[in-house]
Amino acid sequence: MLGSQNDMGQMPEPPAPSDGSSLTAHVYDVISEMLLSGALKPGDRMSLRGLAEQLGVSVMPIRAAIGRLAARGALTVEPKRAVTVPVLRRDEFRDLTRNRIHLESWAAALAAQSGMEAVPLRAAEQRFRSALSRDEAASAVRANKALHFHVYAAARSPVLTELVTIMWLKAGPIINLDLGERSRRSRHAASAESHARLVAALLRGDAETASEALAHDIHSAAEFILSRDILPD
Amino acid sequence: MLGSQNDMGQMPEPPAPSDGSSLTAHVYDVISEMLLSGALKPGDRMSLRGLAEQLGVSVMPIRAAIGRLAARGALTVEPKRAVTVPVLRRDEFRDLTRNRIHLESWAAALAAQSGMEAVPLRAAEQRFRSALSRDEAASAVRANKALHFHVYAAARSPVLTELVTIMWLKAGPIINLDLGERSRRSRHAASAESHARLVAALLRGDAETASEALAHDIHSAAEFILSRDILPD
DNA sequence: GCTTTGCAACTGTGATCCCAGTTTTATGGC
DNA sequence: GCCATAAAACTGGGATCACAGTTGCAAAGC
Questions:
Q1: How do beta strands A83-84 and B76-77 pair?
Q2: What is the distance between the alpha carbons of residues A188 and B104, in angstroms, rounded to a whole number?
């Protein structure tokens, strides 16, 4: 066991930078990022004490952060059992995908109507393509997330962004499942095509095409997952 | 100060019935219901210790429940200040309303397509009209919520229902603001008309009309709030 | 009478201990 | 060797204490 709090054992990120002035916020960000990036897989188990030691804090901030994630449906915490990353059945994943398409394609339409600045949008798309060409899966995942949420922010609807975030927390562990480098690369390549159509439509204010392109992006990624026999049921 | 835990002081509801086998779940339900029913108004302040004494539990379950509500945007908890019910500005309320219309009217369309059983649906509507005629505001609010979520459940989309629930937690304190008996009654009467159109459309599988009726219900209630000068900005 | 200042009460946050279930591991019986 | 069984390790939930900011009230100064 480690000594008292803040033992500086091997905590990955010191609470100093980017810390939301609260240990709970920091822990929330760390676990949230692990979910969104696919570092946590469906069914993965974690314990409060284990995470506490790992992150170099006591169990209290861990509990609070886990509770918040659980409230958003990103984690499952059964009465006296280990905290787990939810395992979605096929129909649950389909339901999630349907809602993602409905909300995120709408967000794309709103963004197109509001108008977007070309430079940062193209830069975000370029960062994704660049990570793709350099074959860096992890940074491609980050760039993909950044591009999508850049669009959602342009919809100028905080509520919508929040709802989409909640769905991403649920979908992250499944969408970013590492199914081998080959398939991941081809999936990202398909995504790049959707992105190109999306960006072009957004810049010319074509709400309908932007909406359709984003829907296609989500749909094809989901179909890829469903085509493999990964999800139960 | 009360004695030790479970002091049986004046706790409103004993943790025994309907308790989700966890004090936190019970506290969550209680506060959630207070938000949805308008018992809590925007800007209302509450303290962990105050709630703990009031509900007859220690601060721990209160903290967990508050944290979960805050994660869903239903409560605001600033670093070292009192927990408050969020005060939405006009534009924030408009944004929330727009998203509610987009999601809830879609849910109504899905419910119409799935088909609904006539008896329980008509019963739910009747309970609202009955509470209305008996002039019982509180039970009209409950019946209204029950009717709406009866429809959303029929959409058979757990994710959608969850997202809608989150938005109701945000809107509850504003929508159910007590602006005097007269205006509340006329607002509920207007709602009854929308409900009639909604129920009829649902039962004949008319997705478009059902969607439109629900959108109108939300829109008119929101316009009523906006017409008064209650929200800041 | 009005402003300013300081102290006291109150706020959420975090740490630590304890408890009652769960899960796993090892042990004993066959 | 295999299965039932018990004990040890581990799980989250809750209570309590300590702490550092915030808020508000009251007394002092002018």
A1: unpaired
A2: 33
ipTM of the complex: 0.86
Closest residue (CA) to C1' of nucleotide C16 is: A58
Q: Identify the pLDDT of residue A1.
A: 31
| Cβ contact A77 with chain D strand, < 7 A | yes
pLDDT at A188: 81
Looking at residue A77, the DSSP 8-state letter turns out to be E
In CATH, what number does B23-84 get?
Answer: 1.10.10.10
Positions of E strands within A42-153: 45-46, 76-77, 83-84
The whole-number Å distance from A86's CA to C1's C1' is 66
Give the residue, B205 or A164, on which the prediction is more confident: A164
Delimit the CATH 1.10.10.10 region(s) of chain B: 23-84
Q: Which amino acid is at B120?
A: P
Q: How far apart are CA A179 and CA A117, in angstroms?
A: 35
B34 φ, ψ (degrees, to nearest 5): -65, -35
For the cut 90, the answer to whether the pLDDT of residue B178 exceeds it is no
Substitution target in B163, B164, B167 with the highest count of A β-carbons within 10 Å is B163
* Burial track B107-135 (b if 16+ CB lie within 10 A, e otherwise): bbbbbbeeebeeeebeebbebbbebbeee
- The segments of chain A whose pLDDT lies below 70 read 1-20, 179
Provide the pLDDT for residue B192: 87
Nearest protein residue to nucleotide C20 (CA to C1' distance) is A80
Letter string b/e over residues B52-68, b meaning 16 or more CB atoms within 10 A of that residue's CB: bbbbbbbebbbbbbbbb
State pLDDT tens for residues B12-58.
443 333 345 789 999 999 999 999 988 999 999 999 999 999 998 99
Assigned architecture for domain A90-227: Up-down Bundle (1.20)
Q: Is the pLDDT of residue B10 over 50?
A: no
What is the predicted pLDDT for the residue at A179? Answer: 67
Residues of B with Cβ-Cβ distance to A106 under 8 angstroms = 102
Q: Buried b / exposed e across B188-207, counting CB within 10 Å, b at 16+? A: beebbebbebbbebbbeebb
Range list for CATH 1.20.120.530 in chain A: 90-227
